[in-house]
Each structure stands twice: as structure tokens, then as C-alpha cells.
Amino acid sequence: MKATCGGGLAPCPSETATTVEVAACKIPDATPGDVVQGFPRPSRAKPGKSELNVLVVPVRYANNPTSEEQVKKDFEREFQKTRSVFDRNSYKRVTPIFTLEPETQWISVAETSQQFVDARGGDLKRVTQDLVSLIFRQNLKDFDSIFIVAAGGTTYFGGMDQTATYKHSSGDIGSVYLQTGPASLAAFPHNLGHTAYYFEDLYLHPANASSGQSTTPLRFDAMAGGSDEYVAWNRWLAGFLYDAEVNCLSTSESDTVHRLTHINSSTGKKLSVIRLGYGRAIFIEYNNDAIHVYELNSWIGHGAGPIKTLGTLQNGQTLVYGNFEFTVLTLDQNGAYVKVKQ
């Protein structure tokens, strides 16, 4: 958005001093389970780890003729995109390191992927376990995430059971994602959200979506679908965003003004949090050329939309939600000044 204060323009407003410790805004998940949308992070999650070691194991189904060269080409394209996504979203604090098994280490099965899945009743955990058992490598515990993929896949079946522990000759492992489709459907930014950070899906699962209803109540997030960006709340949960880059707003003050730099900026505060009670909060960030205001209600279960966008604001616009009023007052060259009235 275009600057309207500072640098020879009108004076910028004064910010309200933060009086609440940021730890108070580390909202817990009210319905924790195999995935957690709040603090503390689950034991299998890897927040703040500077390198994510990701093993990718192709499966050759029914003598599929796809060459090793083609598989490398297909997956390197996805690896490069994912490295770029993490470089931007983590402020260069996290790098995914991909290891694609050579053809000599591929799993080979006699059935097509559909036959293999059907023979196990479409049971994701059973399909995954049977393929994990066939992995040749013996140091699986050295990896933060394991993706079992198809060499030249065309038909998709897949997912991750975040509660699962799989038996392997080298020991028990978790954080395994399986998919049988083309390389693009590995959807690494989304699925590393599951395997490395134990995020939940933020799109509506079919059973929770009414006819004509948008399945993406949250905008701008890889876990919600349709974007490779993570919102600032998920970045904080993942350890991409540091505590010092978060405002924890007081609910005892009627009016506060705070400045937010763009979510992809390397400096400044990038998230403001208003606590609404146990497991609930409102978040404000400068994202995608707008101020994005969204709400967490973690009492809403997995797949039913625990986070939703309340609105996006341009300079001078106001959003009213319950007892809160959010107004974009002005912008300088690097950030936006937002007034919160309660």
C-alpha cells in the first residue's frame, strides 16, 4: 500500500507502548490432539529448527517405466519452489534439505498404486506401514520428515496420520506423508506443515462444508489451500517468527495504535494478538497489500475451520467485529499504523 506519512508526508502517529508480556499471547489449543493450532507445540513438531531434513522415497508401481532422470526433474522443480517458500516465510531462518533416493533405493511393487491401495481397503495407515517396511535406508530417524511418493504417479491417494508410529527395521518412525499422484501433489509447503510442524488443515473438510460455502474461511495460508504463504500466527508457531516480532495487545485499554511491517519484511513487528479467552484470539497482520484481521477459535474441531478471516482493510478503512473496531490510520514506507478500539 502507498505511504501516506513520514518521509516528507504528514507526521506518522505515535504507537501505544506495549504493556503485556508476549508470553501471555501464546494461545493454547483448546482441542489438542494429533495436530495443535496453538502453544505449546506437540513433542513431534520441530519449531525453530534451522534445517529440515526431508527424505523423499519414490515407489515404482507395476513396472512403471518413468526414468530416474524424469523423477529427479519433476521433484527438483518442487524442491526449488519449496525452498523459495521457506526462504521467504521463515526470513531465511529455516531451510528444507531434500534427499531424493536414487533409483537403486526405490521401493518396487508389482501392483498399480490403485491395486496396492485397494488390497488394503484404502486404509492410509496400513498402506503407509506396508511401504515403510520396504524402505531400504537404515537411518530414517535422521530425517525430520519422510515423504513416500510415486515414480510417474498419475492417480492421487494419500495423506498423513499424525498419530501414527510405523515399524521399520531401523526402528519406529513418525512424520510420514504418503501420496501416489504426480510430484506436484506432494504439496511440500502444505504437507511439511503437517510433518514438521503438526499444523492442522485450515480448509473445511467436505463433511463440514455447506452447499455453496467457501471451503477456505482463512485467506493467505498454505494450510488453508490456494496459497504457499503462512499467516503470521502459523509462522510464530513454527518458530519462523520470533517473540520480539509480536505485539501482545492489552484488553484493558480502550484505544491502542500499533505499527506492523509487511509480513515478509525482515524487520519490525509483524503480528498483533488480542486474547479473547482460553484457546481464542484475534490476529492482525500486514499481508498481501492489505491489513488482514483473522480469528482463532480452537474450540472448533479439526477440519471445521478453527481460523477464519474477518476482513482485509486498505488505508483509511475500518472493520467492526463484536466489541472491536480496527482502523488503518496511515502508512509509512515500510509499515501500517492500525488503531484498535474496544
In a nutshell, what does this entry contain?
15% of the residues lie in helices and 27% in strands. It is an alpha/beta fold and 342 residues long.
Distance between the termini: 26 Å
Instruction: Compute the average pLDDT.
Output: 95
Q: Helix and strand succession?
A: EHEEHHEEEHHEEEEEEEEE
Q: Give the overall shape, derived from the CA principal axes.
A: elongated
Could you characterize what this model shows?
A hairpin with a 2-residue loop joins strand 10 and strand 11. 15% of the residues lie in helices and 27% in strands. By secondary structure, it is an alpha/beta fold. The mean pLDDT is 95. It starts with 50 loop residues before the first strand and ends with a strand. The chain folds into 2 domains: 22-40 and 218-341, Tick-borne Encephalitis virus Glycoprotein, domain 1 (Sandwich), CATH 2.60.98; 51-196. The protein has 5 helices and 15 strands.
Please write out the topology.
Layout: E1 51-61, H1 68-89, E2 95-100, E3 107-109, H2 113-118, H3 124-132, E4 145-150, E5 158-159, E6 176-179, H4 188-195, H5 232-238, E7 246-248, E8 255-261, E9 271-277, E10 280-287, E11 290-297, E12 307-313, E13 318-321, E14 324-331, E15 335-341
